[in-house]
C-alpha cells in the first residue's frame, strides 16, 4: 500500500488537496471520500486507517478537501452545497481518469449530502456509503445555528463559533439549500447499493435522517444505527470502519 498527496484543479481553477491510497496490485474498486461541514480529508487522522485497510483488500481511495476547507484553495465563507457538488464531480472525473474500476462514493455528514447530489446524476457511481448524513438540510442547519441561519436567509454574512473556533459563512449557504430536492436525489439512486451508518446518540444530525433514507431506498439500503455513537463516532469509529469495509468487500472487492 502506498499513498500520495496531490492537488486536483476544480472547474474554478482552485487546487483541491487530496490523499490517494492505492493497492500494490491493480485496484478492484475506486472509493472517493467527501468530508463533512468544517471537516477535512483526514477525518481526524482516521482516513489513513481506512485507506490502508482498503488498499490491503484491493481498493483505491481518494479523499479530498472541498474548496475553502483543509489544504484546498478557496474561501470557506462562500461554501454551498452546489459548490461542493461541483468539486466532488471534478474530483470524480480526475479519479476515474486514473482508475477504471467500479466507483463508490463515501460521504460523511454534509459530505454525504453532497454525495447524494452527485450520485443521483452520475451513472458511473455504482455504490454509495453515507456516514451520519443529513437529508433534512434546512431542519438540520437551522437547529445547529438558529440565529445565524435566519440571518443568512435575510442576506447577511454571519459569524459562528464551533469546536474549532470562529468562522464566517455567507448568505448563499442558506439560500442554496432550498435549491436542492434531496428526495429527488435519493430516488435517483435507483437500484444501486447504499450503506447507511448513523449513531443513535448523534447530537448534530438526527438518526431520523438515516431511518428516512432506509425507508426510501428499501431493499437497496443496508442501515446500521449504532448504539451509543455520537455524530463523529468519537469512541466507535472502528465499528463504522469495519461495517464499511465489510460492505465494500461484499459488493465491490470480490475476486474476479
Automatic annotation (TrEMBL):
Please give the Gene Ontology molecular function terms for this protein.
hydrolase activity, hydrolyzing O-glycosyl compounds
Q: Which domain of life is it from?
A: Bacteria
Hydrolase in keyword set: yes
The UniProt entry, under InterPro entries, shows:
AB_hydrolase_fold, ABHD10_acyl-thioesterase, Hydrolase_4
Q: What keywords would UniProt list here?
A: Hydrolase
- Renumbered to this chain, the signal peptide range is none
Q: Where is the Serine aminopeptidase S33 domain?
A: 27-139
Enumerate the Pfam families for this protein: Hydrolase_4 (PF12146)
**Name listed for the protein in its UniProt record:** Hydrolase
Organism from which the protein derives: Syntrophothermus lipocalidus (strain DSM 12680 / TGB-C1)
Amino acid at each position: 500500500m502506498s499513498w500520495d498527496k496531490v492537488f486536483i484543479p476544480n472547474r474554478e481553477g482552485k487546487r483541491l488537496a487530496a490523499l490517494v491510497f492505492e493497492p500494490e496490485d491493480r485496484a478492484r474498486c475506486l472509493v472517493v471520500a467527501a468530508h463533512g461541514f468544517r471537516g477535512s480529508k483526514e477525518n481526524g487522522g482516521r482516513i489513513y486507517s481506512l485507506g490502508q485497510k482498503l488498499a490491503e483488500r484491493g481498493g483505491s481511495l481518494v479523499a479530498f478537501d472541498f474548496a475553502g476547507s483543509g489544504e484546498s484553495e478557496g474561501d470557506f465563507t462562500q461554501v454551498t452545497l452546489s459548490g461542493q457538488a461541483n468539486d466532488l464531480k471534478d474530483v470524480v472525473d480526475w479519479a476515474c481518469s486514473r482508475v477504471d474500476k467500479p466507483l463508490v462514493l463515501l460521504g460523511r455528514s454534509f459530505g454525504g449530502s453532497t454525495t447524494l447530489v452527485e450520485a443521483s446524476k452520475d451513472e458511473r457511481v455504482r455504490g454509495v456509503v453515507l456516514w451520519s448524513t443529513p437529508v433534512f438540510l434546512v431542519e438540520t442547519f437551522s437547529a445547529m445555528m438558529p440565529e445565524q441561519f435566519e440571518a443568512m436567509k435575510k442576506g447577511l454574512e454571519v459569524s459562528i463559533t464551533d469546536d474549532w473556533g470562529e468562522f464566517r459563512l455567507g448568505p448563499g449557504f442558506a439560500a442554496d439549500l432550498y435549491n436542492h430536492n434531496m428526495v429527488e436525489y435519493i430516488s435517483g439512486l435507483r437500484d444501486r447499493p447504499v450503506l447507511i451508518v448513523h449513531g443513535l446518540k448523534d447530537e448534530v444530525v438526527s438518526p431520523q435522517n438515516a431511518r428516512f433514507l432506509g425507508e426510501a431506498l428499501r431493499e437497496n439500503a443496508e442501515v446500521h444505527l449504532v448504539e451509543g455513537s455520537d455524530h463523529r463516532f468519537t469512541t466507535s469509529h472502528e465499528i463504522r470502519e469495519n461495517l464499511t469495509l465489510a460492505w465494500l468487500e461484499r459488493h465491490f472487492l470480490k475476486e474476479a
